[in-house]
Amino acid sequence: MRLPGVSQGYPEWIARHRLGIVCGAALVAALAAIVALTLPVRTEFSQLLPDREPSVLALRRLAARKVNTAVIEVGIASADPEAARRFAAALAPELRRLPKELVREVDDDDMPLRSFLWKHRFLYAPEADLRKAVAAARALYAARNPLYVPLEDPDPRALEELSVRIADLRAQTVDRPPGYVGEEGRLRMIVVRAPFSDTDPRALEEFSVRIADLRAQTVDRPPGYVGEEGRLRMIVVRAPFSDTEPRKAEVLLEALRAKVSLLLPAYPGVAVGYAGDPVTAALEHALVLRDVIVTAALCSLLVASALYFTFRSPRIVLALVGNLLCACALTFGWARLAIGQLNSATAFLGSVVAGNGINFGIILAARYQEERRLRSHSQALFLAIGETARPTLVAAMAAGAAYLSLVVTGFRGFSEFGAIAGVGMLVCWMTTYLVLPALLEFLQPGPVGRARSAPAPIPARVPSIVILLAAAALTVAGTRFLREPFEDDLGALRSRSLPSSEVGKWSRRLDASFGRVRSGGFVLAVEQPEDVALVLDALERAEDGVPAEAHVLGKIDALDRVLPGTAEEQRRKIELLGEARDLLRRALPRLDPAARERSRPLLDDGPLRVLSAADLPPLLRDAFTESDGRVGLLMVVHPGPAFEGWSHRGIRRAVALVSRLRFERPLRGPLYVAGPEVLFVDMMRAVERDAPRATAAAAILVVALLAAALGFGRDLAASLVALVAGMGILLGMMAIFHVRLNFLSVVAIPITIGIGIDYPFNVIARLKTERERGGDTGRALRQTGRAVALCSVTTMIGYFVLLFSDTGAIRSFGLVAVLGELACLLAALLVAPAALVLLRSTVPRSS
Fold first, then answer.
1. Which helix (H) or strand (E) holds 835?
2. What is the 8-class DSSP label of residue 2?
3. For 553, which of 363, 561, 625, 748 is 20 to 30 Å away at the CA?
C-alpha cells in the first residue's frame, strides 16, 4: 500500500525504535523543561516595545542620567495614637539597618523641608507683592511722620497683604502638623487669609485666634508623618531601583515584613500595611505568575477530560498528553535560549501552544482510532500517518505562518509572541509524527467499540445558499466593528483584584491622609541649562486660554520653581525687604499696638542671602541632581484636573501636549520626554501600525500555502470562502457583543487567519481524498468534522482558561480568541462544505 506524504519504511522504523524514541524524547523534554523553568516574566510596558521607539530611548537616557528610586510607603495604624507613635519610632531605626542595596533612605518626617520653607519665607514672596509692601511701609511711615513727603501714591493694603501671605506660608510649613495632615485626613492644606484694615480690629482678633489654634495643632505636636488624629503614621522607604522591577520590590517587601514581624508582638493593636508603585508592581507580577500556573493547570485538566470523553481510551489520551508535554517543554526551552524572557503578552502562551498544538495529534489519533476498528494496529497507524501527515503539515505551516507573521512587526509584544507560538506549532507537528507514533507503538491501544453516530452533514439539510448568506450578514455586521476597533477604557484592562486587595486599601487610606500626587505624569530632561526656562515657558503656554479646571497638565516640579527665583531676582527681593524693614523699624515706635502687631511678620528673623541649589534640603536637592552631579536639568509635569488617565484618547491628548511644545526660540540641545503614559502611547501607535502589517502578512502566507497544497480550483476557492467567512463571523460577533481590541487581544486577528484556514483545509483535504477514492464523502465529513470539532474544543479550552485571569487585557485576549475559534469552526463545518456544493458546477475541481 502506497500513500502520499509518508515513506513505507517510516512507520516500520518508528516501530523498531519506539523505546529509544520515547526515552530520548523524555530526556530531551526534561532538560528543556529545566531550562524553561528559568524563564523570567517581565510585565512592564517597555518590554513590549522595540528598542528604537523614542519613548524607550528617552527612558534609557534618563535612567543613565538619574539614579532610579522606588518609593514604598509603610502605613502604621492603631486605635491608640501613642502605640502608633512608639511603633513608628521603633521601626524607623530598624529599617535604616537594612542593606544599602535594598534601602537608600528612610524618611519618617518632613520637618526639615517645612522648616526650610519657613526660614526663607520672605524670599518666596512674589517680587510684585514686595514692591507693594515697600510702598505701604512708606505710607505707614509717612502717616506717623509729618515731615515725610511721599513721591508716589502707594497702596496702603500691600503691607497687610504681604503679612497675610507670610502668615499663610507659616500655616503651610512649620505650623502645620508634622506629616501631611488635616482634620482626620479630610483637610490637606490650611490657608489663613486675614483681609483686615487699620479700621477693622475684629479681623485682626480673628487672625490672632487662628494662629493660636494652628500653633496648638502643629508645633506643640510630636514630629512625624501623622494622620487621623495620630491613629495613622507613615514611614517612607526609598530604594535604589526603579518602580518597574517587581522582583527587587518583592525582596525589599520581604525584608520590611521581617522587620515588622519582629516588632509587632510587643505592640498589640498595631496594624502595618504597604503602598506605592513598587508594591503595586510586585502584586501585579505575583498575580500574573499565579494566573500562568492556574490557567496552565486548568487547561491541562480540561483538555485531558475532553480527550478522554472523545476517544474513551486512556492509552490514546496518555499518548497525546505525553506528546504535548514534550512539545511544550521543547518550545519554551527554545524560548529561554532564543528570546530569554516572557513579557505580559507571552506569559500565557503555555495554554495557547497546548490548546493549538494538540490539534495535529488529535487528527492523527482520530484517524488511527477510526482505522483501528477495521484493521490491525500497524496497518491503522500506517494509514493514519500517511493520510494525515500532509494535511496537518499544511495546517501547521498555516498556523505557524499566521503566528510568525507577527515577527515582521517592530512591536516586541507581537514579534516575541509570534516567534514562540510559531515555533511551537512546528515543534508540535514534528513531535506528533515522531514521538506520538512511538508512544502509540509502545502503548498499542486496542479498538474502542463502534464509532458513535454523527448527525448528517448540515449542508445536506440546509440550503447552502442560506449558510453563505448568514455568514455574509455577519460579515457586514463586522464592518461596524471596524469603525472603532480599539478599547478606550483602560480600566477594563487592569487587575480586577487590586482595588479590593490589602495594597489597594492601604493606598487609599494613605492617600486620604497624606495627599500623594495623582499617579502618572511626565519627566522632561534637557542638556543645556539655558533650555530649562524655554521649556518651562512653553509648558505654561501649552494650555493658554483653557480654564484652570480643564487643564490636562498640572503642577510642574523644577529647580527654578523650588528656588525663590534666579540670583538676580533674589537680590532684588532682598533689597526690597531691607527697605521695607528699615521703614517699619523707624515707624514702629509711633504705631498703635494693633498696627505694630500687624507689621511684626516683616521684622522676623535675621539677614537674608541669595539661595542656591546647595542650600536646599537633601531631599529636594537630590530630586534634581543627576548621576554626574549636574543639577536643574530635570523637570516633572504632574497630571492636571482634566487628565483622563483611564482613557486611551485622554492619555494620547496629554502626551501630544507635552511632545509638541512650541518654544520662543530653538533649544540648544535635545529634549527628552519619558513616563508611563509616553510608553503606552508609543505602544498603541506600534500596535495600530503593525497589526495591519501582521494581518496582511498572515493572509498572504496562508493563501500561498493553500494554493501550493490544493492548486487553483474549486477546493482553493472553497477554502478562501471559508477563510473570509470565518473572519467576517468573528468581526460580526465582536460588533454584536461590543467587544473591543487592545494591545494584546489584537494578536487574535492574525491568529484567526491561521486557524480559519487550518480547520477548513482539513475538512476539504479529507473530502478531496474520499472523492479521489470514490469513497463515502458524507462519512468522511462526519468523521473529520468530529476531529476538527475536538481540535476546536481543545484550542478553545486554551483560550477559555484565560477568562479566569486577574488581568483584564488577558481576559480580553481570551474572549476574542474564543470568538475566533467559534467563527473558524462554523466556517469549517458549515461554510466550507456549502461552498463546495455551490461551486461544484461552476468551478473545475483542480487546475
1. helix 832-839
2. -
3. 625
* Nearest to 325, CA basis, from 354, 362, 364, 361: 354
Decide if 384 contacts 303 (C-beta within 8 A): no
- And the C-alpha cell for 639? 497630571
The predicted-structure confidence for 229-275, as pLDDT tens digits, reads as follows: 889 999 999 998 877 778 888 999 999 999 999 999 999 999 999 99
Closest by CA position to 805, among listed 389, 304, 288? 288
Exposed/middle/buried for residue 73 (C-beta within 10 Å: 0-12, 13-18, 19+): buried
Q: Pick left, alpha or beta for residue 20 (phi over 0 → left; psi -120 to 50 → alpha; otherwise beta).
A: alpha
Per DSSP, 230 falls in state G
Counting beta carbons within 10 angstroms of the beta carbon of residue 284, is it exposed (0 to 12), middle (13 to 18) or buried (19 or more)? buried
pTM for the model stands at 0.74
Amino acid occupying residue 427: V
**pLDDT over threshold 90, residue 404:** no
Q: Which residues contact 429 (CB under 8 A, 6 or more apart)?
A: 360, 392, 393, 396
Task: Write phi, then psi, for 76 (nearest 5 degrees).
Answer: -125, 120
Q: How far from the centroid of its chain's Cα atoms is residue 440's Cα? A: 45
Going from the C-alpha of 309 to that of each of 303, 306, 366, 592, 790, the distances in angstroms are 10, 5, 13, 100, 10
Q: Which helix (H) or strand (E) holds 378?
A: helix 377-404
771 compared with 12, residue with greater pLDDT: 12
Pick from 95-99, 281-285, 535-539: least confident: 281-285
For residue 829, the 8-state DSSP code is: I
Alpha-helix residue ranges (DSSP H) falling in 405-501: 412-432, 435-443, 458-461, 464-483
Q: What percent of the chain has pLDDT over 90?
A: 20
The DSSP code for 447 is -
d(CA 488, CA 503): 26
The full 3-state SS of 659-692, as one line of letters, equals HCCCCCCCCCCCEEEECHHHHHHHHHHHHHHHHH
Query: Do 373 and 779 form a contact (C-beta atoms < 8 A)?
Result: no
Q: Minimal CA–CA distance to 643: which of 549, 541, 534?
A: 549
Residue of 626 and 110 predicted with greater confidence: 626
Q: Is pLDDT above 50 for 567?
A: yes
